[in-house]
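Exercise: predict the structure of this protein bound to flavin mononucleotide.
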Amino acid sequence: MEYSRGVAAPQASRPRRPVDPAAPLAGAEIVVAIGGGIAVYKIAEVVRRLTKADAKVQVVMTPRATEFVGPTTFQTLSGRRVFTDPWDLGQDSEIGHIQIADRAELVIVAPATANLIARMAAGMADDAVTSVLLATRAPVLVAPSMNVNMWNHPLTQKNLATLVSIGTHVVEPGEGFLACRWIGKGRLAEPADIVEAAAHVLAPKDLAGRRVVVSAGPTYEPIDPVRFLGNRSSGKMGFALAAAAARRGALVTLVAGPVAEPDPHGVAVQRVETAVQLQAAVEAAATGADAVIMAAAVGDFRAASEAAHKLKRGELGATVALELTANPDVLAGLGAARAARGGAGPVLVGFAAETRDVVRYARAKLAAKGVDLIVANDVTEPDAGFAVDTNRVVLVDAAGEEALPVAPKRVVAHRILDRVTALVAARAT
Ligand SMILES: Cc1cc2nc3c(=O)[nH]c(=O)nc-3n(C[C@H](O)[C@H](O)[C@H](O)COP(=O)(O)O)c2cc1C
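Solution:
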């Protein structure tokens, strides 16, 4: 944006403290600015989640917002006096809208009513919320919530476009049954999604513009139309890696085997079923990628032939022999292709799920597949491996081994990405 005609440009945002991408909300000064819509009650959950993530929350409310839920609720949840009126000299001398605006690292506007969005777009400063918003240099995240016709109104869309044009982030409303009894778009995004969007805005973007491919989950190899050979992979580690890379600014393609995990925010997801399908999708996405992280548990074998109809118990004997064919080794294929190009190509990361001699097998895998990093874990440990939410891994590369402490998979994902980020930067130079 050009600032001309003698209008001073706003100062650049304040210098940021170092932020751990695994916990970007911890210690962050976050203003929750509440507009006067029916969804105000849901903001109690937003504030609770933010404080649980160790954010320091300052709630600011418009006069209309206080008619839906009183400030006492938000004061109790945030542990700070709620700011509602810049004209109340008691409030303003105690906290002051300029001070609130200045110390904020992020302002979340939720629910952003049609009226509040219009006042923001017009640059007004006629109440506590708009005064803080106009005075802040922090990034702003708006979560709109309104009747579907208000949402679709060209003026609302124009006002939102104005906000987006100055860098405002938007958490889109959902579709469904609205409080006004209309069905359509306009329902406030879920509190968990608003908090995740806030983490997204605050996280360092050290993978900005990088293309990262992640594979996740098991493969299912059909035996007949109703049976398959599969494995116990839940996909949780791969999905956590994809979400974490997107949070750090990467353009992420996630190739996922059959799992129940929902698509991570901001990630292009391709669902596949068999190893052969997974190989095709990963190899296509790997062209021009900066890193490929193979977290999928790709089946080593498939049935040599798939029966056209369900195999019947009565037509088979007491023992049945199933002939298997080896599946392609996707990671080794990527390593060999890179070697054939004289080493040009993406950073390659593999996973080794072992049940014994974890590091020895991981080191052998590193060499055999020609990759940069192996993330190894012992899947027999109760707090590691398939289906659990935590993992305990050892990072094995040419230089040595690093055992990470047991942690939630979303945290382990960031520690793996710390390595990937460094490897990508090293290859780029
Ligand atoms: C019961 C009730 C519910 C309302 N819910 C919403 C809503 O969800 N979204 C919205 O944009 N406006 C809603 N409104 C209208 C706003 O309250 C009105 O535009 C108000 O001026 C917005 O104030 P603000 O700018 O402080 O947010 C509602 C009004 C009433 C009476």
